[in-house]
Amino acid sequence: MKRRVFIGSGLAAAASLAMPRRRLFASMLPASPLRRQDVMAVTGDGRQVTLPWAAINELRSSIRGDVLLAGDDGYEEARRILNPSFDKQPALIARVTGTADVRQAVDFARDHGGLLTAVKCGGHSSSGKSTCDRGMMIDLSPFRDVRVDPIARTARVTGGSLLGQLDHEAMTYDLVVPMGTVSHTGVGGLVTGGGFGRVARRFGLSVDNLLSVDVVTADGQFRRASAEENPDLFWGVRGGGGNFGVVTSFEFRLHPMQRQVMAGQIMFPLARARDVLRVYGEYGARAPDDIQLDFVMALPPGGAVGAVGFNVCWSGDPAGLDRALAPVRAIGTPIADDVKAMDYVALQRSGDINDPRASEGYLKSGFITGITPGLIDAIVNGFAGHPTRSTALFCQHSGGAINRVAASATAVPQRSALGNLLCFVDWKFGEDGSQHVEWIKRFWSGVERYTDGFYVNDTEIDMTDAAIRANYKQNHDRLVQIKNRYDPTNLFRLNANVQPTV
Fold first, then answer.
1. Do the beta carbons of residue 420 and residue 455 sit within 8 Å?
2. What is the pLDDT of residues 96-111, one digit of tens each?
3. Distance CA 75, CA 117 (A)
4. Exposed, middle or buried by CB within 10 Å (0-12, 13-18, 19+), for 164?
5. Is there a contact between 283 and 370 (Cβ–Cβ < 8 Å)?
6. What are φ and ψ of residue 396, in 5° steps?
7. pLDDT, tens digit (0-9, with 9 covering 90-100), for 162-189
8. Among candidate residues 132, 109, 105, 115, the one with its CA nearest the CA of residue 43
9. pTM of the model
10. How far apart are the first and last CA of the chain?
11. Is there a contact between 219 and 189 (Cβ–Cβ < 8 Å)?
Protein backbone atom coordinates (compact mmCIF):
# COMPACT_ATOMS: atom_id res chain seq x y z
CA MET A 1 0.00 0.00 0.00
CA LYS A 2 1.30 3.45 -0.89
CA ARG A 3 2.34 5.54 2.07
CA ARG A 4 0.12 8.59 2.47
CA VAL A 5 1.48 11.77 3.92
CA PHE A 6 -0.94 14.23 5.42
CA ILE A 7 0.20 17.80 6.12
CA GLY A 8 -2.06 20.11 7.98
CA SER A 9 -2.27 22.68 10.69
CA GLY A 10 -2.44 21.77 14.33
CA LEU A 11 -6.06 22.80 14.32
CA ALA A 12 -6.86 20.43 11.45
CA ALA A 13 -5.00 17.63 13.18
CA ALA A 14 -6.93 18.20 16.38
CA ALA A 15 -10.18 18.20 14.44
CA SER A 16 -9.32 14.91 12.80
CA LEU A 17 -8.55 13.36 16.17
CA ALA A 18 -11.95 14.43 17.42
CA MET A 19 -13.68 12.91 14.38
CA PRO A 20 -15.10 9.41 14.95
CA ARG A 21 -12.90 6.72 13.41
CA ARG A 22 -15.53 5.47 10.98
CA ARG A 23 -16.21 8.96 9.65
CA LEU A 24 -12.49 9.67 9.31
CA PHE A 25 -12.00 6.49 7.31
CA ALA A 26 -15.01 7.23 5.12
CA SER A 27 -13.64 10.68 4.35
CA MET A 28 -10.50 9.07 2.92
CA LEU A 29 -12.43 6.84 0.47
CA PRO A 30 -12.35 7.83 -3.22
CA ALA A 31 -15.45 9.49 -4.55
CA SER A 32 -17.91 7.40 -6.52
CA PRO A 33 -21.16 8.25 -8.25
CA LEU A 34 -22.80 5.36 -6.38
CA ARG A 35 -21.24 6.13 -3.01
CA ARG A 36 -23.84 5.77 -0.22
CA GLN A 37 -26.50 4.68 -2.69
CA ASP A 38 -28.28 1.35 -2.90
CA VAL A 39 -27.39 -0.72 -5.98
CA MET A 40 -29.79 -2.56 -8.26
CA ALA A 41 -28.76 -6.11 -9.15
CA VAL A 42 -30.18 -9.38 -10.45
CA THR A 43 -30.30 -12.88 -9.06
CA GLY A 44 -29.32 -16.03 -10.89
CA ASP A 45 -32.93 -16.66 -11.89
CA GLY A 46 -33.35 -13.11 -13.21
CA ARG A 47 -35.17 -11.40 -10.36
CA GLN A 48 -34.30 -7.80 -9.57
CA VAL A 49 -32.99 -7.12 -6.09
CA THR A 50 -31.73 -4.07 -4.25
CA LEU A 51 -28.35 -4.23 -2.53
CA PRO A 52 -28.47 -1.80 0.38
CA TRP A 53 -25.51 0.52 0.69
CA ALA A 54 -25.07 -0.56 4.32
CA ALA A 55 -24.69 -4.20 3.24
CA ILE A 56 -22.18 -3.31 0.54
CA ASN A 57 -20.23 -1.23 3.02
CA GLU A 58 -20.27 -4.12 5.47
CA LEU A 59 -18.88 -6.42 2.78
CA ARG A 60 -16.17 -3.85 2.08
CA SER A 61 -15.14 -3.81 5.71
CA SER A 62 -15.17 -7.60 6.01
CA ILE A 63 -12.66 -8.45 3.27
CA ARG A 64 -9.02 -7.53 2.72
CA GLY A 65 -9.54 -7.07 -1.00
CA ASP A 66 -11.54 -4.42 -2.81
CA VAL A 67 -15.27 -4.24 -3.43
CA LEU A 68 -15.77 -2.18 -6.56
CA LEU A 69 -18.88 -0.50 -7.92
CA ALA A 70 -19.31 1.24 -11.26
CA GLY A 71 -17.36 4.47 -11.11
CA ASP A 72 -14.80 3.23 -8.58
CA ASP A 73 -11.12 3.30 -9.51
CA GLY A 74 -10.20 -0.10 -10.94
CA TYR A 75 -13.76 -1.16 -11.78
CA GLU A 76 -13.37 -0.81 -15.57
CA GLU A 77 -10.20 -2.86 -15.63
CA ALA A 78 -11.50 -5.54 -13.25
CA ARG A 79 -14.77 -6.12 -15.09
CA ARG A 80 -13.13 -6.96 -18.40
CA ILE A 81 -12.18 -10.42 -19.60
CA LEU A 82 -9.95 -11.47 -22.46
CA ASN A 83 -12.58 -11.37 -25.20
CA PRO A 84 -13.73 -7.71 -25.34
CA SER A 85 -17.00 -8.60 -27.04
CA PHE A 86 -18.27 -9.59 -23.58
CA ASP A 87 -18.66 -6.00 -22.42
CA LYS A 88 -20.62 -6.62 -19.24
CA GLN A 89 -21.26 -4.50 -16.16
CA PRO A 90 -21.41 -6.39 -12.85
CA ALA A 91 -23.33 -4.65 -10.07
CA LEU A 92 -20.29 -5.16 -7.87
CA ILE A 93 -16.90 -6.84 -8.06
CA ALA A 94 -15.25 -8.51 -5.06
CA ARG A 95 -11.48 -8.67 -5.70
CA VAL A 96 -10.57 -11.36 -3.19
CA THR A 97 -7.14 -11.92 -1.66
CA GLY A 98 -7.68 -15.24 0.11
CA THR A 99 -10.10 -17.90 1.26
CA ALA A 100 -11.61 -15.69 3.95
CA ASP A 101 -12.51 -13.10 1.32
CA VAL A 102 -14.01 -15.77 -0.92
CA ARG A 103 -16.23 -16.99 1.92
CA GLN A 104 -17.47 -13.47 2.61
CA ALA A 105 -18.22 -12.88 -1.08
CA VAL A 106 -20.07 -16.19 -1.46
CA ASP A 107 -22.09 -15.48 1.70
CA PHE A 108 -23.02 -12.04 0.35
CA ALA A 109 -24.16 -13.44 -2.99
CA ARG A 110 -26.22 -16.18 -1.35
CA ASP A 111 -27.74 -14.00 1.37
CA HIS A 112 -28.91 -11.36 -1.10
CA GLY A 113 -31.28 -13.54 -3.04
CA GLY A 114 -28.70 -15.71 -4.78
CA LEU A 115 -27.06 -13.03 -6.88
CA LEU A 116 -26.04 -13.91 -10.40
CA THR A 117 -22.43 -14.88 -9.65
CA ALA A 118 -19.46 -15.02 -11.99
CA VAL A 119 -16.01 -16.23 -10.96
CA LYS A 120 -13.04 -14.75 -12.82
CA CYS A 121 -9.55 -16.16 -12.70
CA GLY A 122 -7.63 -15.52 -15.94
CA GLY A 123 -10.68 -14.26 -17.84
CA HIS A 124 -10.28 -16.77 -20.69
CA SER A 125 -13.88 -17.98 -20.79
CA SER A 126 -14.74 -18.36 -24.47
CA SER A 127 -18.43 -17.93 -23.66
CA GLY A 128 -17.98 -14.92 -21.37
CA LYS A 129 -19.07 -16.74 -18.23
CA SER A 130 -16.36 -15.21 -16.05
CA THR A 131 -18.30 -11.95 -16.07
CA CYS A 132 -21.95 -10.95 -15.89
CA ASP A 133 -24.38 -8.06 -16.17
CA ARG A 134 -25.78 -6.66 -12.89
CA GLY A 135 -24.63 -9.61 -10.83
CA MET A 136 -21.55 -10.18 -8.67
CA MET A 137 -18.12 -10.94 -10.05
CA ILE A 138 -15.74 -12.72 -7.68
CA ASP A 139 -12.38 -11.70 -9.10
CA LEU A 140 -9.65 -14.13 -8.01
CA SER A 141 -6.81 -12.30 -9.79
CA PRO A 142 -5.34 -10.77 -6.59
CA PHE A 143 -5.20 -14.30 -5.09
CA ARG A 144 -2.10 -15.69 -6.84
CA ASP A 145 0.65 -17.80 -5.33
CA VAL A 146 2.51 -20.97 -6.33
CA ARG A 147 4.63 -23.01 -3.93
CA VAL A 148 6.61 -26.02 -5.18
CA ASP A 149 8.00 -28.74 -2.94
CA PRO A 150 10.79 -30.28 -5.05
CA ILE A 151 11.37 -33.07 -2.52
CA ALA A 152 7.77 -34.29 -2.41
CA ARG A 153 7.30 -33.28 -6.08
CA THR A 154 4.09 -31.43 -5.35
CA ALA A 155 2.82 -27.91 -5.91
CA ARG A 156 0.28 -25.80 -4.01
CA VAL A 157 -1.47 -23.26 -6.24
CA THR A 158 -3.97 -20.65 -5.07
CA GLY A 159 -7.25 -20.17 -6.88
CA GLY A 160 -6.40 -17.07 -8.91
CA SER A 161 -2.99 -18.20 -10.17
CA LEU A 162 -2.01 -18.37 -13.83
CA LEU A 163 -0.51 -21.45 -15.40
CA GLY A 164 2.66 -19.57 -16.37
CA GLN A 165 3.42 -19.08 -12.68
CA LEU A 166 3.23 -22.82 -12.06
CA ASP A 167 5.36 -23.62 -15.12
CA HIS A 168 7.98 -21.11 -13.99
CA GLU A 169 8.20 -22.36 -10.42
CA ALA A 170 8.09 -26.07 -11.23
CA MET A 171 10.55 -26.05 -14.13
CA THR A 172 13.29 -24.51 -12.01
CA TYR A 173 13.46 -28.00 -10.46
CA ASP A 174 12.91 -29.81 -13.80
CA LEU A 175 9.38 -30.69 -12.72
CA VAL A 176 6.14 -30.28 -14.65
CA VAL A 177 2.40 -30.86 -14.63
CA PRO A 178 0.24 -30.67 -17.80
CA MET A 179 -1.15 -27.16 -17.75
CA GLY A 180 -2.61 -25.59 -20.90
CA THR A 181 -0.81 -23.83 -23.74
CA VAL A 182 -1.13 -20.08 -23.01
CA SER A 183 0.66 -18.82 -19.91
CA HIS A 184 -1.92 -16.22 -18.85
CA THR A 185 -4.69 -18.83 -18.59
CA GLY A 186 -6.18 -19.13 -15.10
CA VAL A 187 -5.41 -22.39 -13.33
CA GLY A 188 -8.86 -22.52 -11.74
CA GLY A 189 -10.92 -22.47 -14.91
CA LEU A 190 -8.49 -24.61 -16.88
CA VAL A 191 -8.16 -27.40 -14.33
CA THR A 192 -11.76 -27.74 -13.17
CA GLY A 193 -12.72 -28.24 -16.83
CA GLY A 194 -10.17 -31.04 -17.31
CA GLY A 195 -6.94 -29.33 -18.31
CA PHE A 196 -5.20 -30.24 -21.57
CA GLY A 197 -1.60 -29.28 -22.25
CA ARG A 198 1.47 -29.95 -24.34
CA VAL A 199 2.62 -32.85 -22.15
CA ALA A 200 -0.82 -34.27 -21.30
CA ARG A 201 -0.36 -37.29 -23.58
CA ARG A 202 2.66 -38.18 -21.45
CA PHE A 203 1.35 -37.33 -17.96
CA GLY A 204 -2.45 -37.12 -18.29
CA LEU A 205 -4.86 -34.22 -17.95
CA SER A 206 -4.40 -31.63 -15.22
CA VAL A 207 -7.21 -33.29 -13.24
CA ASP A 208 -5.40 -36.62 -13.44
CA ASN A 209 -2.57 -35.01 -11.48
CA LEU A 210 -4.67 -33.40 -8.75
CA LEU A 211 -4.04 -34.67 -5.22
CA SER A 212 -6.46 -32.40 -3.37
CA VAL A 213 -8.41 -29.15 -3.59
CA ASP A 214 -9.80 -26.62 -1.13
CA VAL A 215 -13.29 -25.45 -2.09
CA VAL A 216 -15.67 -22.79 -0.78
CA THR A 217 -19.07 -24.23 -1.57
CA ALA A 218 -22.35 -22.35 -1.99
CA ASP A 219 -23.09 -22.43 1.75
CA GLY A 220 -19.89 -20.47 2.36
CA GLN A 221 -18.19 -23.43 4.02
CA PHE A 222 -14.55 -24.39 3.49
CA ARG A 223 -14.12 -27.99 2.38
CA ARG A 224 -11.00 -29.95 1.55
CA ALA A 225 -11.55 -32.63 -1.04
CA SER A 226 -9.32 -35.53 -2.02
CA ALA A 227 -9.58 -39.27 -2.62
CA GLU A 228 -9.98 -39.73 1.15
CA GLU A 229 -11.89 -36.59 2.20
CA ASN A 230 -15.14 -35.50 0.53
CA PRO A 231 -14.37 -37.84 -2.38
CA ASP A 232 -17.62 -37.03 -4.17
CA LEU A 233 -16.70 -33.34 -4.34
CA PHE A 234 -13.18 -34.23 -5.43
CA TRP A 235 -14.56 -36.36 -8.26
CA GLY A 236 -16.93 -33.60 -9.40
CA VAL A 237 -14.36 -30.81 -9.35
CA ARG A 238 -12.16 -32.84 -11.70
CA GLY A 239 -14.00 -31.97 -14.89
CA GLY A 240 -17.29 -30.62 -13.56
CA GLY A 241 -16.15 -27.05 -14.01
CA GLY A 242 -17.22 -24.36 -11.54
CA ASN A 243 -20.51 -26.07 -10.67
CA PHE A 244 -19.76 -26.79 -7.03
CA GLY A 245 -17.99 -23.75 -5.61
CA VAL A 246 -14.85 -21.66 -5.77
CA VAL A 247 -11.62 -23.66 -5.62
CA THR A 248 -9.19 -21.67 -3.49
CA SER A 249 -6.25 -24.09 -3.58
CA PHE A 250 -5.02 -26.92 -5.81
CA GLU A 251 -2.44 -29.53 -4.86
CA PHE A 252 -0.73 -31.14 -7.85
CA ARG A 253 1.56 -34.10 -8.33
CA LEU A 254 4.62 -33.03 -10.37
CA HIS A 255 6.67 -35.13 -12.78
CA PRO A 256 10.38 -35.01 -13.61
CA MET A 257 11.02 -33.62 -17.10
CA GLN A 258 14.01 -31.91 -18.67
CA ARG A 259 13.49 -28.20 -19.29
CA GLN A 260 14.50 -28.37 -22.96
CA VAL A 261 11.97 -29.82 -25.39
CA MET A 262 11.87 -30.00 -29.18
CA ALA A 263 9.12 -27.82 -30.58
CA GLY A 264 7.98 -25.96 -33.68
CA GLN A 265 5.81 -26.36 -36.75
CA ILE A 266 5.83 -28.65 -39.77
CA MET A 267 3.57 -27.11 -42.40
CA PHE A 268 2.52 -28.15 -45.90
CA PRO A 269 0.63 -26.41 -48.71
CA LEU A 270 -3.11 -26.31 -48.10
CA ALA A 271 -3.57 -28.56 -51.13
CA ARG A 272 -2.12 -31.42 -49.04
CA ALA A 273 -4.88 -31.12 -46.42
CA ARG A 274 -6.39 -34.53 -47.20
CA ASP A 275 -3.02 -36.23 -46.91
CA VAL A 276 -2.23 -34.47 -43.63
CA LEU A 277 -5.60 -35.41 -42.15
CA ARG A 278 -5.23 -39.05 -43.22
CA VAL A 279 -1.81 -39.30 -41.59
CA TYR A 280 -3.13 -37.62 -38.47
CA GLY A 281 -5.96 -40.11 -38.22
CA GLU A 282 -3.69 -43.10 -38.76
CA TYR A 283 -0.66 -42.02 -36.74
CA GLY A 284 -2.14 -39.70 -34.11
CA ALA A 285 -3.81 -42.50 -32.17
CA ARG A 286 -0.65 -44.63 -31.93
CA ALA A 287 2.00 -41.92 -31.66
CA PRO A 288 4.40 -42.13 -28.68
CA ASP A 289 3.23 -40.47 -25.48
CA ASP A 290 6.19 -38.09 -25.62
CA ILE A 291 4.87 -36.29 -28.70
CA GLN A 292 2.10 -33.74 -29.01
CA LEU A 293 0.88 -33.22 -32.59
CA ASP A 294 -1.70 -30.49 -32.80
CA PHE A 295 -3.27 -30.32 -36.24
CA VAL A 296 -3.56 -26.80 -37.65
CA MET A 297 -5.15 -25.51 -40.85
CA ALA A 298 -5.13 -21.79 -41.59
CA LEU A 299 -6.10 -19.27 -44.25
CA PRO A 300 -4.88 -15.67 -44.03
CA PRO A 301 -7.25 -12.78 -44.80
CA GLY A 302 -8.66 -12.79 -48.31
CA GLY A 303 -8.23 -16.53 -48.79
CA ALA A 304 -4.61 -16.20 -49.90
CA VAL A 305 -2.24 -19.18 -49.87
CA GLY A 306 -2.92 -21.14 -46.72
CA ALA A 307 -1.11 -23.93 -44.91
CA VAL A 308 -1.86 -27.14 -43.09
CA GLY A 309 0.28 -29.19 -40.75
CA PHE A 310 1.23 -29.64 -37.12
CA ASN A 311 2.36 -27.82 -34.03
CA VAL A 312 4.90 -30.19 -32.49
CA CYS A 313 6.12 -30.67 -28.94
CA TRP A 314 8.47 -33.59 -28.21
CA SER A 315 9.32 -33.92 -24.51
CA GLY A 316 11.19 -37.21 -24.68
CA ASP A 317 14.81 -38.10 -25.43
CA PRO A 318 15.93 -35.84 -28.33
CA ALA A 319 17.46 -38.90 -30.02
CA GLY A 320 13.94 -40.28 -30.59
CA LEU A 321 12.51 -37.23 -32.33
CA ASP A 322 13.33 -38.12 -35.95
CA ARG A 323 11.75 -41.54 -35.62
CA ALA A 324 8.63 -40.04 -34.02
CA LEU A 325 8.26 -37.47 -36.81
CA ALA A 326 8.98 -39.88 -39.68
CA PRO A 327 5.28 -40.47 -40.54
CA VAL A 328 4.68 -36.72 -40.65
CA ARG A 329 7.70 -35.92 -42.80
CA ALA A 330 6.77 -38.74 -45.16
CA ILE A 331 3.78 -36.66 -46.30
CA GLY A 332 6.10 -34.70 -48.60
CA THR A 333 8.19 -31.58 -48.79
CA PRO A 334 7.04 -29.08 -46.17
CA ILE A 335 6.88 -25.35 -46.73
CA ALA A 336 8.12 -24.89 -43.16
CA ASP A 337 9.85 -27.16 -40.66
CA ASP A 338 11.30 -25.25 -37.72
CA VAL A 339 11.21 -27.93 -35.00
CA LYS A 340 14.18 -27.19 -32.74
CA ALA A 341 15.35 -27.23 -29.13
CA MET A 342 13.30 -24.84 -27.02
CA ASP A 343 12.87 -23.92 -23.37
CA TYR A 344 9.58 -25.39 -22.17
CA VAL A 345 8.56 -22.30 -20.21
CA ALA A 346 9.27 -20.14 -23.27
CA LEU A 347 7.20 -22.52 -25.39
CA GLN A 348 4.30 -22.18 -22.95
CA ARG A 349 4.48 -18.40 -23.39
CA SER A 350 4.84 -18.53 -27.17
CA GLY A 351 1.10 -18.20 -27.84
CA ASP A 352 0.42 -15.41 -25.38
CA ILE A 353 0.28 -12.56 -27.91
CA ASN A 354 -1.46 -14.23 -30.83
CA ASP A 355 -3.96 -16.17 -28.75
CA PRO A 356 -7.14 -15.46 -30.77
CA ARG A 357 -9.30 -15.18 -27.65
CA ALA A 358 -7.72 -11.76 -27.03
CA SER A 359 -9.91 -10.26 -29.74
CA GLU A 360 -13.59 -10.45 -30.50
CA GLY A 361 -14.43 -13.81 -31.94
CA TYR A 362 -16.57 -16.89 -32.07
CA LEU A 363 -15.54 -20.49 -31.46
CA LYS A 364 -17.01 -23.93 -32.09
CA SER A 365 -15.43 -27.11 -30.76
CA GLY A 366 -15.97 -30.80 -30.27
CA PHE A 367 -14.07 -33.98 -29.52
CA ILE A 368 -13.31 -36.40 -32.34
CA THR A 369 -12.55 -40.09 -31.81
CA GLY A 370 -10.96 -40.53 -35.22
CA ILE A 371 -10.66 -39.04 -38.69
CA THR A 372 -13.01 -40.65 -41.18
CA PRO A 373 -13.31 -39.94 -44.92
CA GLY A 374 -16.56 -38.11 -44.16
CA LEU A 375 -14.87 -35.81 -41.66
CA ILE A 376 -12.05 -35.13 -44.10
CA ASP A 377 -14.58 -34.17 -46.79
CA ALA A 378 -16.48 -31.91 -44.38
CA ILE A 379 -13.29 -30.10 -43.34
CA VAL A 380 -11.69 -29.70 -46.75
CA ASN A 381 -14.84 -28.89 -48.72
CA GLY A 382 -16.22 -26.49 -46.12
CA PHE A 383 -13.08 -24.56 -45.17
CA ALA A 384 -12.96 -21.08 -46.69
CA GLY A 385 -11.28 -17.73 -46.19
CA HIS A 386 -12.68 -14.33 -45.32
CA PRO A 387 -12.01 -10.98 -46.98
CA THR A 388 -10.51 -9.28 -43.93
CA ARG A 389 -9.82 -11.90 -41.25
CA SER A 390 -7.87 -15.12 -40.94
CA THR A 391 -9.64 -18.44 -40.42
CA ALA A 392 -8.19 -21.34 -38.46
CA LEU A 393 -9.01 -24.92 -37.55
CA PHE A 394 -7.12 -26.71 -34.79
CA CYS A 395 -7.16 -30.14 -33.23
CA GLN A 396 -5.55 -30.44 -29.81
CA HIS A 397 -4.03 -33.90 -29.66
CA SER A 398 -5.39 -36.31 -27.06
CA GLY A 399 -4.66 -40.01 -26.57
CA GLY A 400 -1.71 -41.49 -24.72
CA ALA A 401 -1.98 -41.24 -20.93
CA ILE A 402 -5.25 -39.28 -21.25
CA ASN A 403 -7.00 -42.24 -22.82
CA ARG A 404 -5.70 -44.76 -20.30
CA VAL A 405 -7.88 -43.23 -17.55
CA ALA A 406 -11.36 -44.69 -17.21
CA ALA A 407 -14.26 -42.49 -18.33
CA SER A 408 -15.78 -42.76 -14.85
CA ALA A 409 -12.58 -42.04 -12.89
CA THR A 410 -13.18 -38.27 -13.11
CA ALA A 411 -16.04 -36.18 -14.41
CA VAL A 412 -14.33 -35.99 -17.85
CA PRO A 413 -15.96 -38.74 -19.95
CA GLN A 414 -14.24 -38.17 -23.32
CA ARG A 415 -11.33 -40.51 -22.65
CA SER A 416 -11.37 -42.18 -26.07
CA ALA A 417 -10.91 -38.95 -28.04
CA LEU A 418 -8.18 -38.48 -30.62
CA GLY A 419 -8.37 -34.74 -30.02
CA ASN A 420 -10.39 -31.61 -29.46
CA LEU A 421 -11.31 -29.97 -32.76
CA LEU A 422 -11.72 -26.19 -32.66
CA CYS A 423 -12.65 -23.72 -35.36
CA PHE A 424 -12.73 -19.99 -34.83
CA VAL A 425 -12.80 -16.64 -36.54
CA ASP A 426 -11.91 -13.37 -34.87
CA TRP A 427 -12.43 -9.76 -35.87
CA LYS A 428 -11.34 -6.31 -34.86
CA PHE A 429 -12.93 -4.82 -31.78
CA GLY A 430 -16.03 -2.85 -32.70
CA GLU A 431 -16.59 -4.52 -36.07
CA ASP A 432 -19.79 -6.38 -36.88
CA GLY A 433 -18.89 -10.03 -36.58
CA SER A 434 -22.24 -11.46 -37.67
CA GLN A 435 -20.98 -12.61 -41.09
CA HIS A 436 -18.12 -14.47 -39.41
CA VAL A 437 -20.41 -16.13 -36.89
CA GLU A 438 -22.75 -17.15 -39.71
CA TRP A 439 -19.88 -18.70 -41.64
CA ILE A 440 -18.48 -20.67 -38.73
CA LYS A 441 -21.92 -22.05 -37.83
CA ARG A 442 -22.42 -23.11 -41.45
CA PHE A 443 -19.00 -24.77 -41.57
CA TRP A 444 -19.50 -26.47 -38.21
CA SER A 445 -22.88 -27.88 -39.23
CA GLY A 446 -21.01 -30.13 -41.65
CA VAL A 447 -18.38 -31.13 -39.09
CA GLU A 448 -20.46 -31.54 -35.94
CA ARG A 449 -21.91 -34.93 -36.85
CA TYR A 450 -18.38 -36.38 -36.55
CA THR A 451 -17.83 -35.00 -33.03
CA ASP A 452 -18.58 -36.63 -29.69
CA GLY A 453 -19.19 -34.06 -26.96
CA PHE A 454 -17.23 -30.92 -26.21
CA TYR A 455 -14.56 -29.62 -23.85
CA VAL A 456 -16.47 -27.84 -21.07
CA ASN A 457 -13.96 -24.97 -21.09
CA ASP A 458 -15.19 -24.24 -24.62
CA THR A 459 -18.85 -24.06 -23.59
CA GLU A 460 -20.92 -21.89 -25.89
CA ILE A 461 -22.91 -18.87 -24.74
CA ASP A 462 -26.34 -20.49 -24.79
CA MET A 463 -25.56 -24.15 -24.16
CA THR A 464 -28.74 -26.12 -23.48
CA ASP A 465 -29.27 -28.43 -20.54
CA ALA A 466 -29.81 -31.30 -22.99
CA ALA A 467 -26.44 -30.66 -24.64
CA ILE A 468 -24.67 -30.59 -21.28
CA ARG A 469 -26.41 -33.77 -20.18
CA ALA A 470 -25.38 -35.51 -23.39
CA ASN A 471 -21.84 -34.22 -23.08
CA TYR A 472 -21.28 -35.64 -19.60
CA LYS A 473 -22.78 -38.97 -20.71
CA GLN A 474 -22.86 -41.59 -17.96
CA ASN A 475 -21.27 -39.15 -15.52
CA HIS A 476 -24.13 -36.65 -15.60
CA ASP A 477 -26.39 -38.30 -13.02
CA ARG A 478 -23.53 -38.45 -10.52
CA LEU A 479 -22.77 -34.77 -11.16
CA VAL A 480 -26.42 -33.91 -10.44
CA GLN A 481 -26.20 -35.71 -7.09
CA ILE A 482 -23.08 -33.73 -6.17
CA LYS A 483 -24.72 -30.49 -7.33
CA ASN A 484 -27.75 -31.25 -5.17
CA ARG A 485 -25.52 -31.67 -2.14
CA TYR A 486 -23.16 -28.71 -2.53
CA ASP A 487 -25.11 -26.15 -4.59
CA PRO A 488 -28.82 -27.00 -4.44
CA THR A 489 -29.90 -23.44 -5.35
CA ASN A 490 -27.55 -23.28 -8.37
CA LEU A 491 -25.63 -20.23 -7.14
CA PHE A 492 -22.76 -21.27 -9.41
CA ARG A 493 -24.53 -21.48 -12.75
CA LEU A 494 -22.24 -19.53 -15.10
CA ASN A 495 -20.46 -22.61 -16.43
CA ALA A 496 -21.34 -25.81 -18.26
CA ASN A 497 -24.20 -25.84 -15.83
CA VAL A 498 -25.41 -29.03 -14.19
CA GLN A 499 -28.96 -28.31 -13.05
CA PRO A 500 -29.82 -29.35 -9.47
CA THR A 501 -32.99 -31.37 -9.00
CA VAL A 502 -33.80 -30.61 -5.34
1. yes
2. 999 999 999 999 999 9
3. 16
4. buried
5. no
6. -80, 120
7. 999 999 999 999 999 999 999 999 999 9
8. 115
9. 0.90
10. 46
11. no
